[in-house]
Write a structure and sequence with these properties.
This protein has three helices and no strands. Among the domains are: 50 residues; 33 residues. The protein starts with a helix and ends with a helix. The chain has 129 residues and is mainly alpha-helical. It is 73% helix and 0% strand. This is DUF4148 domain-containing protein.
Length: 129
Amino acid sequence: MKTALILTGLIVCAAAPAAAQTWRQSQPPYAAYPGGAPAAIADQHRYETERLRNQAQANAALARQQALESRIERQRIEAARQIAAPPAAAARPLYSAEQERTLREGAAERRARTAQGVGQIDAWLDRPN
C-alpha cells in the first residue's frame, strides 16, 4: 500500500511540470497580420496554390524530358538494329524468270521472318505503361 502511494506521488510529480510547461495563447491567431485572420488564411491558400502549380510544372517538364530521352534512345536502338547491307556480291549469273521469282519470294520470306523477330522488341517498347 505504501509503495502504491509513493508510485502515485511520483507519477503526479512527473506529470505536473509537463502540464505547467504548456503554452497558452495570449492573443488570437493572426492578430498582428494586416487584414486579420481571413487575409492570412487567403495568403496561405495563395502560397500553397502557387507551390502546387510550380510542382506540377516541374513534373510536366520532367515528363517531357523523359519522353524526349526515351524517344531518342528508341531511335538509337532502331538505328543500331538496322541490318547492314552485305558487301557487294559478285555478279550472279542470269536465271530464268521462274528462278528469279523463286529467289525474290525466298528473300521476301526471310525479310518477313527477320522483321517478325524484331517486331517483338517494338511490341515490348510500345506496351502500355
